Amino acid sequence: MGFYGDAMTNDSTIAPFRIEIPQAELDDLQQRLARTRWAEELPADGSAAPAAGPVPPGWEYGVPVGYVQRLVERWRTGYDWRAWEAKLNAYPQFTTEIDGQNVHFLHVRSPEPDATPLILTHGWPTTVVEWLEVIGPLTDPRAHGGDPADAFHLVVPSVPGFGLSGPTRERGWDRYRVARAWAELMRRLGYDRYGAAGNDGGSLISPEVGRADPEHVCGVHVTQVFSFPSGDPAELAGLGEEERGKLAFAEWFTQHRGAYDKLQSTEPQNLAHALADSPAGLLGWHAQLLGEQLDPDFVLTNVMLYWLTDTAASAARFYYEDAAAAPVQQKSNGRGTTVPEPTTVPLGLANFAWDFQSIRTFAERDHQNIVSWNVYDRGSHFAAHDAPDLLVDDIRQFFRKVR
């Protein structure tokens, strides 16, 4: 099949899919990169007081020009999109229409016939590329020194509005609607009993898959539990010193590093015009979360999938839709505030060192069946890329408990 626009269907058909980017689009990208007009910035003379918190030197005002220039140079002269296109095309890919929306997904079945079906969900600003390092170990543990009993059949979809699923075409694609679509996708693929796992936005969506389809979901594994204070003073009074430190960091991050969330949750179209027109601008916007610690080609490939599909605007709208939908999904706690209904499907957390630090007191309020909670001394927000061994082992041990 051709690119995502050619594979749209009007029913529940599952169509084979292959990425085939026309050379003219790659040539246009090269021309745009060559004509980049760089933003101005203050000189790094050390005279400005750095922002409080763990901000890398030179990043006090946000993503620095030098970082974007280095990656644009790599993009123009050293990055090989065709190699990454072939890498993605080595996996079986498909599209189907669910709830009026095109959904792209990788479907990688294990050679072990009794493998556990598992749907993996990415977040922003990544794509299905986020999971490439763990596909082999999860689907074929026998070939990677593991126990074949730990094998998974993997379904790795592009969230509607992100990357290869293409732009969303109507309002309302929040985490709850995506979760219902995932339940339908797994039903359509014939999986009666399955697990869900995710990172970032996928850590918001995956618990909702369990809530939407509890009779079929055996467990949910996440890398963050995004549970925050409900407004009850007694809840804060009961926090220990370690949890207070985690809460202070979350508050600092929201105030000082949460620009993407504030804009995309309120008026996402404001920035969309620039991101649709400038690949360097798209890279700079996404780099506020991706950053220098990741492999440059991993960063560029994720950015490429947004650029080539023109999904910067629709991916940003996910934040707006999610913020608008959240109050509808909550109930009163009797004190003038609202709290989510707790999930009941077994939940497991793998919390990595350089990432949002989940607070168990709040997590237990929102999820009543936590069966695994592990904290690691390495790995970042993108652990499937920079700590895949830890993540794979954690997913395996969790699903041994629940499947």
Automatic annotation (TrEMBL):
The keyword Hydrolase applies. Signal peptide: none annotated. The active site is at D200 (nucleophile), Y319 (proton donor), H381 (proton acceptor). Keywords: Aromatic hydrocarbons catabolism, Hydrolase. Residues 14-131 form the Epoxide hydrolase N-terminal domain. One of its GO terms (biological process) is epoxide metabolic process. This is Pimeloyl-ACP methyl ester carboxylesterase. The lineage of its organism: Bacteria, Bacillati, Actinomycetota, Actinomycetes, Micromonosporales.
